[in-house]
């Protein structure tokens, strides 16, 4: 694995311990990797180890779909037509691989675009004389934290979802302490919104 993977200790521990027949579920392909080359390499490595990969937002690249593409080649006829059929089978396999690569490339592009927009936004704010950073005594909530709360609100059976606490923790790789802290804050926000007549929490 490359340097970007090396900084993710929990992920490296997971792929080291999984065994043939195990299943890893991701909310999206970006949860597995935001680097196209390393993501596809990891995908193929886990696939060949017999690990079932499931992507909730990109089900068309689940390893079960990839496996079906690998095994559903056109049967050979034993004639010279086989040269053509072999080419068709190789093309179908290459097409399946390309779909997977495109998903990882898109995830990488989204990260780069986000970084660029963040830098541009900070620079624009600075040029307009706005304060960069938080004022003393104020609480800041990062977008990553907001996203985790949205995911908990969407998937946890305590709110709008059907998953148990331990399943949500495992699915999104959230520490147990952080998970219950976020749940408490979500409940507090829901209670506050009801008191002041605000709209429900938005997930988009």
TrEMBL record:
Transmembrane segments: none annotated. The lineage of its organism: Bacteria, Bacillati, Bacillota, Clostridia, Lachnospirales. One of its GO terms (molecular function) is DNA binding. Residues 2-70 form the Resolvase/invertase-type recombinase catalytic domain. It comes from Anaerotignum faecicola. It comes from the Bacteria. This is Resolvase/invertase-type recombinase catalytic domain-containing protein.
